[in-house]
Amino acid sequence: MTEAASPSSLYRMRPMSHHVEANGLRLHYLDWGEGPSQNLFLLHGLSDSARTWDDFAKEASAGYRVVAVDLRGHGESGHATDGYTLDKFAADVLAVARGLNVRTFHLVGHSLGALVGIHLAATQPRAVTRLALVDGGPGINVAPARQYLLPGFSRPMGFATEDEAKAWLKQTYSAEPEEVALRRFQYDMQKNWAGRWVLRQDPELWWFIGDEEGFRKRTDELWALLPQVQCPTLFLHGRQSRVASEEAAQRIVAALPKGRLVDIPGARHNIHSDQPALFKEALLGFLGE
């Protein structure tokens, strides 16, 4: 296990970066430090990384030990040779928890992370104490999700300069605040052996949603798992989201034994970056009950 240099006095403000070997991969995660008795795991969406949670995690770390995981194929985690399926994503998260000797944790998942969260909470009921699904779950609208993600997977092979890479990121993710788009350069891009700036994410991840028939089959299987999620569960829905409809959100909550729905005004799919204050208020209120 390795860790990035960071002064201990800033342990909560700046997370420690760790790797762990598990399931044939080198998995990366960010840890905001021990101290609080309750653990909070954060899972990002498809083509994103653990760094999407930096702003929220910094504040949440006052009351929780926060761990944000780079799912396989994303960020600094290794690229898989055996594919990208929900059971494999879930097994990786569980491996990180076990490596930290964490037996129970609250779990927050955005988009893809929400799908993984449902799988984990249903199959590992003793591990997940509270679950928050951020605009993700079975029944999502595949077409807008594919449309949003496609530019990131059909990107140029690489960029000669930082300025070229940043310009492409700002244009591609123009719906996000500029500082969020530029954060992708800092954490989701790297200079390769040829001196070109390239995205870290595995291009093979596209087929998780690019194979539309397979994606629908995999997510439809989650409907059967929802009644098995016994922990209190919050669905945070972006009122302006084109990915998760209000109808789908209501259906998911109805299938959960202890589900509830909170609608976030002015938010699209990326609620935590669109409306960070409302997101934090709703989520921390739920986790603190």
Short description:
With 289 residues, this protein is of the alpha/beta class.
What does this structure look like?
With 289 residues, the chain is α/β, with parallel strands linked by helices. The protein has a single domain (8-144, 213-287), classed as Rossmann fold, CATH 3.40.50.1820. Helices cover 39% and strands 19% of the residues. The protein has 11 helices and 10 strands. The protein has helices at 54-60, 86-99, 112-123, 142-153, 162-172, 178-188, 206-210, 212-225, 246-255, 271-274, 276-287; strands at residues 16-22, 25-31, 39-43, 65-70, 105-110, 128-134, 189-191, 197-199, 233-238, 259-264. An 8-stranded mixed beta sheet has the order 1-2-4-3-5-6-9-10, sandwiched between helices. Strands 7-8 form a two-stranded antiparallel sheet. Helix 2 (86-99) crosses helix 3 (112-123). The chain starts with 15 loop residues before the first strand and ends with a helix. The model is unreliable at 1-11 (pLDDT under 50).
Task: Output the keywords.
eight-stranded mixed β-sheet, globular, alpha/beta, Rossmann fold, 289 residues, 10 strands
Multimeric status of the protein: single chain
Give the percentage of residues in beta strands: 15-25%
Rg is 18 Å
Low-confidence stretches: 1-11
Mean pLDDT: 91
Output the CATH topology: Rossmann fold
Distance between the termini: 34 Å
Shape: globular
Major sheet: 8 strands, mixed
**Helical percent range?**
25-40%
Number of domains: 1
CATH superfamily: Alpha/Beta hydrolase fold, catalytic domain
CATH secondary-structure class: Alpha Beta
List the strand order in the largest sheet: 1-2-4-3-5-6-9-10
User: How many E-type strands?
Assistant: 10
Which architecture per CATH?
3-Layer(aba) Sandwich
Number of helices: 11
